[in-house]
Amino acid sequence: MSLRRSLAATAIFATAIFACLRGSNGQADFQFEFSETSFTVSVGGITLLAHSPENPIAFVGRGTSSFAESLGSFLVDDAIEEKVALDAFEVEGVGETVEVALFRAGEPGGVRVQMSLSSGERDAGGMVALRFPLVATLATLGGDVNRLWVRWPADPSEKIFGGGEQFTYLNLRGHRFPTWTREGGIGRDDSFLANAANLTNPGSAGDYHTTYWPQASFLSTRKYYFVSDFHGYQVPDFSASGYHEIYYHATEATLLFLAGDTATPLRDLVRDFCTWTNRPFQLPDWIFNGAILGVQGGTDRMLEIYEQCRANGVSISAIWIQDWSGKITTTLGTRVFWNWRWNQTWYPDLDVVIQDLLPDVRITGYINPYLNTEGDIFQEAAGLGHLVVERNGEPYVQEHGGFAAGTVDLFRPEARRWYKDLMKANMMDLGLAGWMADFGEYLPVDAFTSHEGGDPYEAHNLLPLYWAITNREAVEEEGKMEEILFWMRSGSPGSSLHQQMAWAGDQNVNWEEADGMPSTVTAALSLGLSGMGRTHFDVGGYTTFVIVLERSKELLLRSAEYAAFTSVMRTHEGNMPASNHQVYTDDDTMEQFARLVDVYVALAPYAKSLLAENSETGFPIQRPLFLEYEGDEASYGVQYQYLYGRDLLVAPVLQPEVVSRGLTDE
Ligand SMILES: *[C@@H]1O[C@H](CO)[C@@H](O)[C@H](O)[C@H]1NC(C)=O
Ligand SMILES: *[C@@H]1O[C@H](CO)[C@@H](O)[C@H](O)[C@H]1NC(C)=O
């Protein structure tokens, strides 16, 4: 920390020099400069914070909000009643930290925000602590307020990337991003489908920002990485040309800035952030034996499709049966029975079949953090007090579309232990080699959990993290991290420390950029820049509606072609298998699919080297072009191509009836 001043007492100056000498390596971490009416805070010549009466750093105010949940979509009603600029400040101390009081001009005794600037190491719970040259902590004192806004400077040409898993925008500039884990929604545009979804269930159409994994961390082309150390509802806003702003449903905030200087490569910033939120993961080798084939319908059907694929030359690494625990019939069609135990009537002899197929092929299953109220496991959990509850202490039961379910209180260590034991006994002991660890986004804000902070808003965004922890620990405690693969869609900051593999959730079985196959490229790239660089997607997409939205053969094969250049190639039949073209629909599809799986398998040595790099540094496997070619201005606008490692540029065909594409388009 160094200090240059144009005003204030020499005594303060002397203290500042002292603080500077105590810096980590004798280098100045941040520089604080101030005059009577303004101040700036910079690192390596990059201005990170700035304040003047016209452009204050902080605002406080009051608001009311409601978060109405329905099938994992949230109607957020957020009314701001008051927003007051704290346009005056006073430097109160310059030592190891710089203390600044922010208040309203002429009202030094009124509501104020105490801002503390320092440099220091932060631990994300992983292997590596990261030193942030600038940590700004703001706390509101006095006043009847419940909202805080923090602003920092932006350049009109600056670009912002990351934000967790984003499906619409890779460059987030020009938009605001409510940070609230939820369903991605059906359609993210004004399509017929999105409108129909909203009519059926208000809010179930997605929006440009709706995502399973929102995260308030960003890379700026002004050469810094920003992390918000807060888990409740917040809205980073990049829509202004001269500043960025975060709106907090809180009166305290901590902003972490990672920066070197103006010559630091963006790559280094991303790598440092990713290493911080990464754990060395050794994924099972078997994933490279072929595709993970998604099928359902009982033992006979599973084996029949598997044999058919094999007969047509398709290499299969695993069969994925999401309905291993059985099916239920609801008014909305058939759904998996959320009672996590092998259904022996539906899958007779599954235990024997699993052993018979080894060592060539594995069987994987499905689980989520919810329990169907009709099941005995729900009853057991309720009796043990392992479920999220209502105010009256009764299990909080949510409607899931034709049936109801409770949520395991994963914040509760005893509940986690119990759920891990269930996963070990019912899944791993049966011989399942992995599973989709689905959901995690539905926790309502009036639910009571054992989350320490007790704040339901924080608990909502953190449940995905605890769901990831539960899965990792279950597998790790059995010593099976190199044998089992679980994949997840929901995420919170820190989830990348626990998830072996993410997948992009539910896409429409179409070509739309908003919510079809192309959106998975944006998702992989944004999530990769946010610390989770191991991702894949449902080959062929998921969301299907009879006649209106059905999967074509062309879409299926094009998406398989693109999936060959990702870490995991896994098919999904979709929510209406009979309406969709499937890899096993005809011989021609199987033969073409077989060829694409062969490409994936042939790339295994390369793919493994990328996983190894990712394991060590967290650096994303699929990366945007600018990350390797940051001097190339044109690369920043490329959203639908990616580098698969350093050496392969992948430009998937994402449109129907097209047999080639140029590399100069986006
Ligand atoms: C669906 O409803 C949400 C919430 O009211 C709204 O924000 C969104 O624009 C709607 N989408 C469509 C396609 O009508
Ligand atoms: C097993 O699955 C079948 C078919 O999906 C279902 O009818 C039956 O109720 C399930 N049995 C149990 C014990 O869950």
Automatic annotation (TrEMBL):
Q: Where is the Glycosyl hydrolase family 31 C-terminal domain?
A: 618-660
What Pfam families does its record include? Glyco_hydro_31_2nd (PF01055), Glyco_hydro_31_3rd (PF21365)
Among the GO molecular function terms of this UniProt record, one is: alpha-glucosidase activity
Q: Please indicate if the UniProt record lists GTP-binding as a keyword.
A: no
Specify the Glycoside hydrolase family 31 TIM barrel domain's residue ranges.
298-607
GO BP field: carbohydrate metabolic process
**Keywords of the record:** Glycosidase, Hydrolase, Signal
Q: Cross-referenced InterPro entries, in alphabetical order?
A: Gal_mutarotase_sf_dom (IPR011013), GH (IPR017853), Glyco_hydro_31_C (IPR048395), Glyco_hydro_31_TIM (IPR000322), Sulfoquinovosidase_GH31 (IPR052990), YihQ_TIM-like (IPR044112)
**What start and end residues bound the annotated signal peptide?**
1-26
Question: According to its UniProt record, which protein family does this protein belong to?
Answer: Belongs to the glycosyl hydrolase 31 family.
* Protein name, per record: Alpha-glucosidase
